[in-house]
Amino acid sequence: MNRVFGSIAVMGVLALGAGCGGTELEEAQSPDMEAVTQAATEEPRKLDDLIGALDRDQGVLHVRDDSQDVVLRELQAQRVDETTYLTKDALTGEATKFVLQAYPLVKWLSLFKLCPNGQYVFSWLQCPTLIVNDPLTRVWMNSTCNWKIQSAGLSSCVNTSSGASYRFQYLEAWKCGVGTGFCVERRGATAVRYDYALASCDPSIITNVQSTNYNFLCKK
Predict the structure, then answer these.
(1) How does pLDDT run across 81-110, given as a tens digit for each residue?
(2) Least confident residue range of 12-16, 83-87, 136-140, 145-149
(3) What is the rounded distance in angstroms from the CA atom of residue 184 to the CA atom of residue 91?
(4) Distance (Å, rounded) from C-alpha 60 to C-alpha 67?
(5) Which residues, listed in sequence order, are joined to residue 214 by a DSSP beta bridge?
(6) Residue pair 112/120 in contact by the 8 Å Cβ criterion
(7) Cβ-based neighbours of 200, under 8 Å, separated by 6 or more
(8) Could you give the CA distance from residue 166 to residue 199 in angstroms, rounded to a whole number?
């Protein structure tokens, strides 16, 4: 996933090069805990509102047969040949080729199970314990990308006992909320961690840039 956030990383390096501000001398707890939490009630978690689910790992878009055109439109999918489509993730730019499998509504509802994280997955998939491992891009109706969960910003710089340091760039993040339209939801990073070889987040030597702190996000 790191390569997906290349453009973000470059922007972060430029921003950090302008100065880090104060530092903290003690180790701070990393915010990149990826344990899945219970879904909030504001999220459109009624199964009846789920009309499409793209399995990015398998390259298959599973869709309700009465919503096929809408789902393809919301994914901005382009036809490659008679059976294959291509979509680019609006958050990351990552491209996925897929084939389409449509189901009548009565069968569609029986395909899913509810996981402890509040997300529906196909009955043949294991419930992911980490958001970053969730393979599905979901398309919801009666939903809008209108729930802001985080503003953009920078964390304080943290010096480590080894003489190195790190800090986080927080990305503006939105989730699908209840609405009157459609919303595409997928895993996405809400932060980028920058590791420095020197103390005080000295930008002269950056040893690692890693996207982290995943959530189920949409593109505003």
Answers:
(1) 999 999 999 998 999 999 999 999 999 999
(2) 12-16
(3) 10
(4) 16
(5) 189
(6) yes
(7) 20, 23, 157, 159, 165
(8) 8
